[in-house]
């Protein structure tokens, strides 16, 4: 099955700096790569996603890049703010039957300090 | 986005009892729903894929007789933790997507504590 590795496990940045989280996946059949933000005790919230036919996608301060050949994708957050502090999960999805299963990375705890 | 609800939001029970968790899609008729489990400070682990009108598909290592899944309608899937034990204490989250290759939207989760 799919295996997703995520680094780093913790990341501390100062407000205004950039944060980068990297993930690798193992199954070349994976074709959809979402990123979720999870605050303590809450549900994961989708913040950005990218499909295998696209190399880069940006939404305001958040961007994601995908390198299919190397099987890795990264989340970039610029101009970080304290409210960006949370746990971020990458995931890789492959199609099965009528839906697509997600395999999650191990998570990155991001702390933005003042 | 999409709207997914779960009930209850938290439950405390005695060891040996069974607990039922409901997951509802409020704005979409979902053929497929997913059930995840998340232990403290860990990632989400897929437990099973719930298919409307048919048997659920369980991930390797998940006991189908312990975690009963029923997807009786297009808007409701239930997870029953049978004979719960303290090691079953966890955060259980459901999700659904509108189809293959589509985004998964998560319910608010149910926190289970087994004493």
Descriptive overview:
The complex is a heterodimer of chains A (114) and B (115). In chain A, 0% of the residues lie in helices and 61% in strands. With 114 residues, chain A is mainly beta. With 115 residues, chain B is mainly beta. Chain B has strands spanning 4-7, 10-13, 19-25, 32-38, 45-51, 57-58, 67-73, 76-81, 90-97, 104-106, 110-114. In chain B, strands 2, 4, 5, 6, 9, 10 and 11 form a 7-stranded mixed β-sheet that branches. Chain B has a 4-stranded antiparallel β-sheet with strand order 1-3-8-7, with no helix packed on it. In chain B, strand 9 and strand 10 form a beta hairpin. The radius of gyration of chain B is 13 Å and the shape is globular. The interface between A and B is medium-sized, with 28 and 26 residues.
Summarize this structure briefly.
Chain A contains no helices and 11 strands.
């Amino acid at each position: 099955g799919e295996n997703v590795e995520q680094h780093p496990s913790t990341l501390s940045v100062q407000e205004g700096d950039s944060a980068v989280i990297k993930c690798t996946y193992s199954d070349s059949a994976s074709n959809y790569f979402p990123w979720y933000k999870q605050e303590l005790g809450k549900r994961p919230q989708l913040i950005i996603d990218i499909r295998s036919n696209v190399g880069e996608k940006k939404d305001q301060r958040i961007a994601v890049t995908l390198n299919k050949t190397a099987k890795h994708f990264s989340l970039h957050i610029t101009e970080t703010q304290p409210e960006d502090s949370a746990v971020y999960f990458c995931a890789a999805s492959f199609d099965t039957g009528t839906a697509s299963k997600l395999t999650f990375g191990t998570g990155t705890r991001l702390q933005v300090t003042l | 986005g999409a709207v997914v609800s779960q009930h209850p939001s938290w439950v405390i029970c005695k060891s040996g009892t069974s607990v039922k968790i409901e997951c509802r899609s409020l704005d979409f008729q979902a053929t497929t729903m997913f059930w995840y489990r998340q232990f403290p400070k860990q990632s989400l682990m897929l437990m099973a894929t719930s298919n409307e009108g048919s048997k659920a598909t369980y991930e390797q290592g998940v006991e189908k007789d312990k975690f009963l899944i029923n997807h009786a309608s297009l808007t409701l899937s239930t997870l029953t933790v049978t004979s719960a034990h303290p090691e079953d204490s966890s955060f259980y989250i459901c999700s659904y997507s509108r189809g293959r290759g589509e985004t998964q939207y998560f319910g608010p989760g149910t926190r289970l504590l087994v004493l």
